[in-house]
Input
Amino acid sequence: MASLEGQTALVTGGSSGIGEAIAKAMAAAGAGVVVNYASSQEEARRVVEEITARGGRAISVQADVSREEQVLAMFQAAHEEFGALDILVSNAGVQKDAAFTEMTLDQWNLVLGINLTGAFLCAREAVKEFLRRGVVPERSRAAGKIIFTSSVHEVIPWAGHANYTVSKAGLSMLMKTLAQEVAPHRIRVNSIAPGAIKTDINRSEWQSREAAAEVLKFIPYERWGEPEDIGKVAAWLASDEADYITGATIFVDGGMLLYPGFRTRS
Ligand code: NAP
Output
């Protein structure tokens, strides 16, 4: 198992779904974890309790990642608790779906604000800290690691979800540009792009037998993903096992990008 012993990870949107699984996987690998949430205080507290019950170290910190002053306060709280930050997982994300002509400016701004601007604000603060401190060889070969939770929809268009797909496509270029910019400082920046993972964001789909089966048609591996499928990859990607990976998107999607419709096309 990849080791994150002695390191600290901040996971935005760590109170639920994919972020929760990432926070737990990081803690299981030895990292102290900051579990960020926006409004789900009880859920975040539960995640922290589950981590500490297994001997891990964690705190929860409230912050809306789309608000600059709240992001700054969150990084300050992380610093006060753990003294250093080694890993940022910028994972917080929302969907507000609408047909294009029905989409309000508020829906557009909300999704771009959390999914993309929130990622920018958090990554900026993390990079500042990584640059200030540099490499600490006893902890990691890198000065810092950033992982964005993107989506297969950074490349697959999705009608009725223009705000969401644009936020994830933007995240792809943010990740690559930042990776290029900070690589000489030994800061690694990557994305994980999940396919269909059972979480609150798509509960209505996987809880309905017909809707869940419909989604399976898009997954050659013929199963929905579980949050733990992403958590394990994130812990590995943050570790020195993946030290030569930067500027990459790792698709964890059961083959969703393999043009599944062509499997049965003659
Ligand atoms: P989820 O269970 O709904 O979790 C979303 C998380 O984001 C929650 O912890 C939520 O906390 C947090 N959050 C929302 N708005 C926030 C804000 N303004 N500031 C800080 N945190 C905020 O959904 P999920 O599926 O795990 O989604 C996590 C990420 O995976 C998202 O970026 C999503 O786009 C991506 N993703 C998911 C799938 C999938 O199939 N599930 C596929 C591809 C990509 P509160 O409850 O406190 O608001």
